[in-house]
Design brief:
The structure is a homodimer.
Chain A (H helix, E strand, L loop, with lengths): L13 E5 L3 H13 L2 E6 L13 E3 L5 H8 L4 E4 L6 H9 L8 H7 L2 H10 L7 E4 L2 H11 L3 E5 L9 E4 L2 H14 L3 E5 L5 E9 L5 E3 L3 E6 L2 E7 L5 H17 L4 E10 L2 E8 L9 H4 L4 H9 L13 E8 L12 H5 L4 E5 L9 E9 L2 H16 L3
């Protein structure tokens, strides 16, 4: 088998991405520039990324047979989501396939409990938390750390799903009952007064070479990222702390690829919320705003190629998500001409039908000042929604 | 049939590009962002762009049957080269298909004689020229305008092919004899002492809305573009003249899409050399250096969508072509890891096997100063060649 990092004369390196959503779709744009053949393992032929590459396999990310067949046509296998079976990844690696991030890394990334335990063990700042299995444990945690208490599913949550705010023991009881019925394990976490949410992206190669993107502020509503502002308007020492934490995590989990570390800023400093070891919504701004996008650096990392500069090409950038709202056209392209008339915005639509709450595109604007970039991007998004 | 510019609810606009070289390949990257389904009419399944889109038809650009079948699956048809049959384009339009640029525009663009006659008629500055069919006519032109004389095939030349420099009547005789034997019609043109070559890109919508990119300097060797420097270091009034000329040409030929106007700078001003009505090598810098790339504005124009800002995002940019040299690896990806280590360069490889003289990629660098950007891009190209 050809080594992924050899770039053997005459053949393009083939990277296989498990998952074919918008993250794989934008990875394809980066792959085209570098002459990388991107293969995707899609659930359906009309998945976002399956529409834009000729190399599509249909299969399940938790099926070892499907993964083995997919890996056979790739030099390296990576992911656009964490919903993969770790045992299958281990089997894939054992069969001689290059898999990045590794099964060990994915195992940590897909489990908030493991993450928290690891970070606490490393002495990294996390909110007070405990694993809970019964309402009594939540009640004891609330008594010790105060109410409300945040309850989180350890696995499988995203975009606000799998997170509940329990105001008191009665509210917690309902969540715990449901979780027990659905077989979910839960974390209880102190409700921390947050001044801002932040995200720190890091890319890391197998040998340890790493780059840390400019720290960004993420604006969330109901647990869904709506806006990203780059760089975060934050004291230099806090940005430096975020960078140090993210690089420490990358090292500790043996990261290969890109990782987003979601952080809470409190009055006293920053706390680690959770990590995602794949291209991440908080890094979409990097397509236009950085010398090398998160997608390109992810590909470079998994092929063990030198990582690219993460320098900002403009003083400020803002990314606003296009999220389905009631009454929006099924295809966001319908309102594209109106939105394109907004000066200097960079519009991305994902080839997905809009449904309320679904991320179907995003808009990035660069500028001298964050507020101006944010206004322009938000105006284009409103026009895409049909509400502008 | 759906109108291309409607963006009908639920369906992606489908643009068909005749030709599947690197220009179509880079157009696919722009199409992905805008949710446009790019179809290509390729000569072979491994053509540069056919490797990166699932929508590939195999056929000949001069076959009406192939064009009709291709157009049937597209809302608008456009081109990545001019080697199309104008009569077939007229038949395509007559059958109700949207074709941009139009057959009339393509007819001018693919014929240097017609271009020159049109520009002269419009009072735009061109070098003295005449159509020649026999050596006596070249001899008379040389006597009137001095030797050497430039001889050009009216049609089909590119990258230095189809252009000859005749030092005297004897040399001209050889070229004319060969041209007559091969059925080529020729232009004779005064050999103009050039201080620099320039290129002005313009995009224009059906209604007339136009944008003119920053004027660039193109560095040619043996008729092949090697480097592009943006913006051209030129007096403001000359840049303004180039812009005015290009917009006048766009208007005169009813351009829809992107056009490159190649210009000569002489001690006395600028002269028009020739035009290309498609994305052009002199515009590759715009992918990273401008708010909207030539590829995106071409797509917007043919769909009659608002054109995007052409503002530079950095003070200076340089693009250096990767052109096959003897001894270079067949696949330029082989040397990619070395080249990626050069700080802040943006590498594009086209998925083509390298052969001496063949364009197989390019590198763009942005910077505060042109010289620095050029040095970095050139260093990356040398490493890709294996000579760095």
């Amino acid at each position: 088998m050809r080594e992924a990092n050899e770039g053997a004369d005459g053949a393009a390196p083939r990277v296989g991405m498990v998952g074919a959503g918008q993250l794989a779709r934008m990875t394809q744009q980066a792959a085209i520039s570098l002459g990388i053949e991107l293969h995707v393992l899609a659930g359906a032929p009309d998945d976002s990324a399956a529409r834009v590459t000729p190399h599509v396999s249909i299969g399940r990310p938790d099926s070892l047979d499907d993964l083995l067949a997919f890996a056979a046509c790739c030099d390296a296998v990576t992911f656009d989501h964490e919903l993969v079976d770790v045992a299958a990844l281990r089997a894939l690696a054992a069969a001689g396939h290059t898999v990045y991030p590794s099964a060990d890394t994915v195992e940590v990334a897909q489990d908030k409990g493991r993450q928290r335990e690891l970070f606490a063990r490393l002495g990294l700042p996390v909110p007070p938390f405990v694993r809970v299995h019964a309402i009594d444990e939540v009640r004891a945690f609330g008594a010790a750390h105060g109410w409300p208490v945040v309850l989180k599913a350890e696995r499988g949550g995203y975009d606000g799903r799998g997170v509940w705010l329990a105001q008191d023991a009665a509210g917690a009881g309902e969540v715990v009952d449901q979780a027990v019925r659905r077989g979910l394990s839960l974390l209880a976490e102190q409700f921390v007064p947050i001044t801002r949410e932040l995200a720190q992206l890091v890319a890391r190669r197998p040998g340890g070479e790493s780059v840390a993107y400019p720290l960004v502020e993420t604006v969330q509503r109901e647990g869904i990222c709506h806006e990203v502002l780059a760089p975060a308007a934050i004291a230099l020492e806090r940005a430096e702390e975020a960078r140090r934490l993210a690089l420490a995590i990358a090292e500790a989990i043996g990261l290969v690829g890109i990782m987003a570390v979601e952080l809470f800023e409190t009055r006293d400093g920053v706390l680690i919320n959770e990590i995602a070891c794949r291209p991440h919504n908080s890094g979409h701004f990097s397509i236009e705003a950085c010398a090398t996008s998160q997608f390109e650096n992810h590909l470079r990392a998994v092929l063990d190629w030198p990582l690219g500069s993460i320098a900002l090409v403009a003083p400020a950038a803002a990314m606003v998500n296009l999220i389905g709202v009631p009454g929006m056209p099924r295809n966001p392209v319908a309102n594209l001409p109106a939105a394109l008339a907004v000066e200097g915005v960079r519009i991305h639509v994902y080839g997905k039908e809009s449904r309320p709450g679904r991320k179907v595109g995003h808009v990035t604007a660069l500028g001298e000042r964050t507020a101006d970039a944010r206004d322009r991007a938000a105006r284009a998004v409103a026009l895409l929604e049909g509400s502008g």
